[in-house]
Amino acid sequence: MNNSIAGLDLAKNVFHVVFFDRHFKEVRKRMLRRNQVLAFFANTPPVLIGMEACSGSSYWGRELIKLGHEVKIIAPQHVKPYVRGNKNDYNDARGIAAAAKIPGMPTVPVKTIEDQDIQAAHRMRTQCIRDRTALCNSMRGLLAEYGIVLARGVSKVRKGIPELLEDPDNALTPFFKEMLARRYEQLVEIDGHIDFYTQKIKQRAKEDDACKRLQTIPGFGPINASAFKSAVGDGSAFSKGRDVSASLGVVPRQHSSGGKDNLLGISKRGDRYLRSLLVHGARSTVRAAANKDDQLSQWINRLRERRGIHKASVALANKMARIGWAGMPPAGALNKDYSF
């Protein structure tokens, strides 16, 4: 591979690419239709191609790697400072190339098709859970107009609606009951979709070696493990475990000056969904640690006593991310005492 760099601005139909030589002097630019991209790069000598992380970036990354190119996918917030001049597609491509040549620039791993499948299953499952929550809240709000208040929670709604439909003495009219019954059928249908996606995720986690290793770590179940694997990949995009926890936003924000360190709350960067899974898994582990005396549980109990359950849970989520990275190939084998 030569020292050339190309910035590729991805789009739905029209792509723009700008090439630079090893001295970062612009040598050519090109506009490509979607069906021309792969043929164009197949006839291009191997180069480093920078792209913004967006819908389709992993697909194009996989295809360009097959053609012998090196690919760097960079988050948009890291590209923006390098875009000069007015907003246009060529300037965007130039900014992407400028960001790609910076040593140490954080990159997004190119997902394998298997990891993308798992991520899609998680996205579909999450969307169904949101739809179910919205549906339950809608039914509770409509019932409140009739003077009937249901407790919060899906289980309360799931139990309460059939009782209301069968009760002949409440304030609900036959017309409204008919419509409410239809909404309840939608709730049952969404429950079925959620169960389907959950079983698919668990099945894949049972078959994947990395997910099986992750599930030996306290706080990791099949849902957490598969989500972590799909986000981190084989771990090669990170040089150390701290980079993983930082990318997931479970490290303190820093606002230091004059040689004085000032640490604030967690940064909450990166994947909110995966961060919430890690914290939920950590919280259950913190609660269970009260009755254990192994090395990790002793650390958790000491931290909980000093800082409380919530900060202890976030601290454990940080540790889980680092331990999880250590168990991913090629990072290495798990340290069973979880001491790092």
What does this structure look like?
- By secondary structure, this protein is an alpha/beta fold.
- It has three domains: about 100 residues, 2-Layer Sandwich (Nucleotidyltransferase, domain 5), CATH 3.30.420; about 100 residues; about 120 residues, no CATH class.
- Helix content is about 55%, strand content about 10%.
- The chain has 13 helices and seven strands.
- The strands form two sheets. The protein has a five-stranded mixed β-sheet with strand order 3-2-1-4-5. A two-stranded antiparallel ribbon has the order 6-7.
- A hairpin with an 8-residue loop joins strand 6 and strand 7.
- Helix 10 packs across helix 13.
- The longest helix is centred in the middle third of the chain and has 34 residues.
- The chain starts with a strand and ends in a 14-residue tail after the last helix.
- The mean pLDDT is about 90.
- It comes from Desulfatibacillum aliphaticivorans.
- InterPro entries: Transp_IS110-like_N, Transpos_IS110, Transposase_20.
Oligomer kind:
single chain
Radius of gyration: 25 Å
Major pleated sheet: 5 strands, mixed
Number of discrete domains: 3
- The mean pLDDT is 90
Trace the largest sheet across and list its strands. Answer: 3-2-1-4-5
Q: How many helices in DSSP terms?
A: 13
Strand content: 5-15%
Instruction: Compute the number of strand runs.
Output: 7
Gross geometry: globular
Q: Helix/strand/pairing class, anyone? A: alpha/beta
Weakly predicted, low-confidence segments: none
